[in-house]
Amino acid sequence: MYAKKHTVVNEDASNSNWNELTDVIEEALKQHCFSMVYQPLISVQSGKVVGFESLVRCESPTFGVISPCDFIPCAEQSGQILELGSWIFQQALLDLKRMRNQGMENICLSLNVSPVQLLHTNVYEQLMSLIIELNIPPSAIKLELTETALIHDPQTICKVFNAFKQEDVQIWLDDFGTGFASLSLLRKFNIDGLKIDRSFVNGIADNNDDFTLCSAVIAMAQRLGLHIVAEGVETESQLQILSQLGCDVVQGYLLGKPQTLEQNLSLWS
Ligand code: C2E
Ligand code: CA
Ligand code: CA
C-alpha cells in the first residue's frame, strides 16, 4: 500500500532494520515518546519572528534519540504516520494557540505534511476541526509538502489543496530545488510559497551555481507573486546575500535552532 522510499543493497539486512524501526516507533507511540520542537522563521526586513516550523522529535526508551530523517520515512511506509501525524497536528496547534495567547498574536505555524497523510486520511477534516475548536485563523497555518509529494496522486492532492485554499490555509513547497521541480506544478497546485532547500543556501556565498540557483528561484518567486523562505541559514554572509537578493524570510541555526515551546516562549514572547 505504501511506496518504499529507499533503494536497498542488502535487502534482508535492510528489511530487518526497517522492521526493527517499525517496532521502535510502535513502542514510542504507546509510551508517548514523541515531542515537538519549533524553529523560528525570521523576517529579513524587520528581524522579527513571523512564525515557527514544527518539527517532531523521538526519544525511544530503548534506542535513545532517533532522527526524523530515519523514523518519518519508516512511519510513512508502515502507515504509522497516520497516528503519529494526527498527534503532531493536535500538539502543534495546541502549542500555536499558547504562543498566540502569550504575546505572539500574529505568529504562523508551518506544519510538515506527509503525502501518505494527504492520500490516506481525512487531513482536511482533522485540521479544520482543530482550527475551529481552537479558534485559530486558518491563514496562520502553512502546510509544507515536498515536490515529490505532489506527483504521487496529483488529482487527489489538488482536490485536498483546493479545499484548504478555500478556507485560507496556506500551501507551501518544501525543499524546493531538490526534487521534481516542474514550474507548471506551481501554477497547477496554486502554491502560496517556496522554501529553498538548505543545500543551495549552504553554498550561496562560495559556490557560483548555488548563488545562481538561489537568485533565479527568488526572482521567479517574486514574478509569480509567491512568498519565499530560505532554509538552513548558518552564516552572516549567507544572510546578507539572501537579503540583497530580496528574500522575505529566513530560517536556520544563525537565527534560531529548533527548541521546545517553553524555550521559545521565554525567548520570543
Ligand atoms: P525539513 O522539513 O526540511 O526540516 C528542516 C530540517 O533542517 C530540520 O531537521 C531542521 O532541524 C534542520 N535545520 C534547520 N536549520 C538548519 C541549519 O541552519 N543547518 C542545518 N544543518 N540544519 C537545519 P529535522 O528536525 O531533523 O527534520 C528533518 C526532516 O524530517 C524534515 O525536513 C522533515 O522532512 C521531516 N520532519 C520533521 N518533523 C516532521 C513532522 O512533524 N512531520 C513530517 N511529516 N515530517 C517531519
Ligand atoms: Ca519543512
Ligand atoms: Ca525543508
UniProtKB/TrEMBL annotation:
Ranges for domain EAL: 18-269
Domain of life, source organism: Bacteria
Record's signal peptide: none
Pfam families registered for this protein in UniProt: EAL
PANTHER family for the chain: CYCLIC DI-GMP PHOSPHODIESTERASE PDED-RELATED, CYCLIC DI-GMP PHOSPHODIESTERASE PDEF
Protein name: EAL domain-containing protein
